[in-house]
Amino acid sequence: MALGRGLGELLGEVEIAYEKGNKNDYSRKGSIVELDVNSIKSNPNQPRKIFDEDKLKELSDSIVAHGLLQPIAVIQNEYDSYTLISGERRLRAHKLAQLDTIKAIILDTEEFKLRELALIENIQRDDLNIIELAYSYAQLINEHNITHEELSKKVFKSRTSITNTLRLLQLTSYVQQLLANDKISAGHAKVMLGLNEAEQKLVADSVVGQKLSVRETEKLVKDLKTPSTKKVHNNKKSTSTYDFNPLKNVLETLKNNDLKVKAEKNYFKIEITSQEDIEKISNYFRNTL
């Protein structure tokens, strides 16, 4: 196989090779072969980092019962070892089932294409969460110097969808984590774009804690972005502390008349519970003035 051929042609060969799976000429690259699972190294550039153990077990049980319907794709290294291009879940499922070999297609492709093939395979065929998907898009665009339009043709997604997904990477890591774990939806997350870090956390926590809808979240964000026009009055009270020693005799006299008196910080308080209390206060000031 010549080096440097187009990605579409390479992926086409995968399908053709699969259809020829019953042929016994396994020496040619592009044919389906049985490889030792321990001879295959995972792709270090695999974008998917988290695998659902329950779904992996389901896939493993299905492979044991029905066999592998779609072979993995690898590239051959030196010393009879291989690097996985696509099929991480299938390889893991084989190991989980303790199967010794796995059906594989050996592709002869440029090393630079390894990451691109792995990313595209995951975007098209696996259930990446939306944040993993966004990072996969960004990696393809940055490392392979392609436009949003070119990427849309490679992964069969609309350019608008790709652009909107990439915008989610502008969110804080806190919000991205909530989104990746399905604590909030992409609709909630998009509303938070443009907010600062503290505001994003406030809104995200409100969505999770109060189970806000997207519309309710939009209203919350609108309120945050629109400062109040009401005049703010300074209602702070004085906290000065005064010396009440000059009134010590007054306090004692009033208390001796069974009046409840309190003096602290910046106020002098006489509690009145009856008309008789008023008479007592009046008599005190009448006799002292």
TrEMBL record:
MF (Gene Ontology): DNA binding
List the record's Gene Ontology CC terms alphabetically.
chromosome
Chloroplast as a keyword?
no
Keyword vocabulary terms for this entry: Chromosome partition, DNA-binding
Q: Which Gene3D superfamilies match?
A: 1.10.10.2830, 3.90.1530.30
Task: Please list the residue ranges annotated as the ParB-like N-terminal domain.
Answer: 33-123
Q: Which domain of life is it from?
A: Bacteria
**Alphabetical list of InterPro entries matching this protein:** Chromosome_partition/occlusion (IPR050336), HTH_ParB/Spo0J (IPR041468), ParB/RepB/Spo0J (IPR004437), ParB/Sulfiredoxin_sf (IPR036086), ParB_N (IPR003115)
One annotated GO biological process: positive regulation of sporulation resulting in formation of a cellular spore
Q: What Pfam families is this protein classified in? A: HTH_ParB (PF17762), ParB_N (PF02195)
The family note in this entry says: Belongs to the ParB family.
What name does the UniProt record give this protein?
Chromosome partitioning protein ParB
- Natural source organism: Malaciobacter mytili LMG 24559
